[in-house]
Amino acid sequence: MTEATANPALHALNTRRSMKFLRAPAPKPDELAQILQAAMSAPDHGALRPWRFVRIQGEAIGRFADAALDAVKRSGDPRMTPEKEKSVRAWMAEVPLFLALAAKIDHNSKVREQEQVLAAGAAVMNILNATHMLGYGAFWSTGLGTYVEEVQEILGLDPLEYRFLGYLAIGTPACAVPPANRPDFRDFLTEWTGAEAAVK
User: Fold this and answer.
1) Residue 166: left (phi > 0), alpha (psi -120 to 50), or beta?
2) pTM for the whole thing?
3) What is the distance, to the nearest Å, from the Cα of residue 165 to the centroid of all Cα atoms in its chain?
4) pLDDT recorded at residue 170
5) pLDDT < 70: residue spans in the chain
6) Ligand-binding site membership of 109 (annotated)
7) pLDDT of residue 174
8) Residue 41 labeled ligand binder
9) Residue 65: inside a domain, yes or no?
10) Where does the Nitroreductase domain start and stop, copy by copy (predicted)?
11) Is 142 annotated as a binding residue?
12) pLDDT at 5
């Protein structure tokens, strides 16, 4: 038995995977509070707390689908065909909870914008892990007009202040999901010893 399977926390981290097809129930209010509180532990240069989340649930999901899809079509995105729109609407109708994700950029800070966005991304990863640890599924999507400014504005996120990062769909997995085939970390690791630099 490896350490990753012997340690429950590491096992949870190593078994998390994206789950697109979700259904009710969503996390209960106290569970969602725990999930969102986990985001507050993300690394955050300058303690700027750049992460922002907009909760969309219940009847608001249908209203948001109408507004966002109309905005995407007005943007001229050729990928939003009638068939694609039908598919997106059907998917959204099953998901019980969406969180829109954004980084609020402090343009006056000495902390670079890239680092502020990374901090928000780390907060989202904490949400994904906490959701999985509580037995729910989640899917990070940028497919619903994330790069259309009108969609961002519909959510109250001024493009001059925020970098929109997409959505988390959260709920109960609608079907069994096989374990993901993860690569070996060694394929992505090199070691720098300084020996070559010392020779020069």
Assistant:
1) left
2) 0.92
3) 7
4) 98
5) 1-5, 198-200
6) no
7) 95
8) no
9) yes
10) 15-171
11) yes
12) 58
